[in-house]
């Protein structure tokens, strides 16, 4: 994961999605019982978005690594 700079669009999306996922995890843990299911659903959706962003980052990294400098 050293071929793409941290300010690349793919890296920025991964960082933003990871922050969102961590916030959702805290919200799900702290939610009152009547809101727990909703927050857990949001947390799970956030995890899927993070996974998609990581896959896009890896594809961008592979493309950057395979191109000659």
Task: Describe the overall structure.
The protein has one domain (9-63). It is elongated and about 50 Å long. Helix 1 (9-30) runs antiparallel to helix 2. The longest helix is centred in the last third of the chain and has 34 residues, at 33-66. The chain has helices at residues 9-30, 33-66. The protein is built from two helices and no strands.
Layout of strands and helices, then pairs:
Elements: H1 9-30, H2 33-66
| Regions with little confidence, pLDDT below 50 for 5+ residues | none
Distance between the termini: 17 Å
Q: Could you describe the largest sheet, including whether it forms a barrel?
A: none
Overall geometry comes to elongated
The tally of domains stands at: 1
* Order of secondary-structure elements: HH
Rg is 16 Å
Instruction: Give the tally of β-strands.
Output: 0
Query: Structural class given helices, strands, pairing?
Result: mainly alpha
Quote the beta fraction.
Answer: under 5%
The average pLDDT is: 87
How helix-rich are the residues, as a percent range?
over 70%
> How many H/I helices?
2
Features:
single chain, 69 residues, mainly alpha
Question: How would you summarize what this structure contains?
Answer:
The chain has about 70 residues and is an all-alpha fold. It has helices at about 10-30, 35-65. Helix 1 runs antiparallel to helix 2.
């Amino acid at each position: 994961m050293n071929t793409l700079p941290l300010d690349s669009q793919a890296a920025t999306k991964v960082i933003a999605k990871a922050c969102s996922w961590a916030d959702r995890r805290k919200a799900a843990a702290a939610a009152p019982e009547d809101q727990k299911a909703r927050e857990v659903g949001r947390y799970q959706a956030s995890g899927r978005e993070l996974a998609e962003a990581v896959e896009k980052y890896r594809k961008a990294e592979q493309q950057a690594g395979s191109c000659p400098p």
